[in-house]
Design a protein that fits this description.
By secondary structure, the chain is an alpha+beta fold. The chain has a single domain, classed as 2,3-Dihydroxybiphenyl 1,2-Dioxygenase, domain 1. 16% of the residues lie in helices and 43% in strands. An 8-stranded mixed sheet has the order 2-3-4-1-5-8-7-6, covered by helices on one side. Strands 9-10 form a two-stranded antiparallel sheet. The chain is globular.
Length: 159
């Protein structure tokens, strides 16, 4: 099953938790001092908010899948469409360990494609990768998208 993912940056977490809990008719599935997430069934959406962004509003959109095979199919679609892909591989952010990659739409909106492997007790862990920092840092770091066409530099966050 695929689940739509939306991540918003908010200024007041408490007010937004109250608002979205009322709107969705459900309490967050995960709540931390800087983050909340609803895993809604109807409609199927992973809706997350956090206070870690530089400005309120949409941080990124995404598609969450249930297993590695579904993630591979999404990746094949991106490759077939010759999309520039930033592959994070297995990484941590937003209180989860996930296998993920990113694409950016023509408007510059980041799309996260990911499979959550496990919950973790912290927002993110220091990256063991030599090619970059852990995702979900307070100020998104530029990343290099690499594909068959010329590389593009974009910024991204995660979750």
């Amino acid at each position: 099953m695929k689940r739509f993912h939306v991540h918003l940056h908010v200024e007041d977490l408490g007010k937004n938790i109250a608002f979205y809990s009322a709107m969705f008719g459900a309490q967050p599935a995960r709540q931390e001092s800087d983050y909340a997430k609803w895993m809604l069934v109807d409609p199927p959406v992973n809706f997350a908010i956090s206070t870690r962004g530089t400005a309120a509003g949409i941080d990124h959109l995404g598609i969450q899948v249930d297993n590695g095979e579904e993630l591979a199919v999404l990746r094949e679609n991106a490759d077939r469409a010759d999309m520039a892909v930033a592959d994070d591989g297995e990484t941590t952010c937003c209180y989860a360990r996930s296998d993920k990659y990113w694409v950016t739409d023509p408007q510059g909106i980041a799309w996260e494609q990911f499979h959550t492997l496990a919950d973790i007790p912290v927002f993110s862990e220091k990256s063991e990768r030599a090619d970059g920092p852990a995702c979900c840092v307070a100020a998104p770091a530029p990343i290099q998208f690499v594909k068959t066409r010329p590389a593009q530099t974009q910024t991204k966050s995660c979750c």
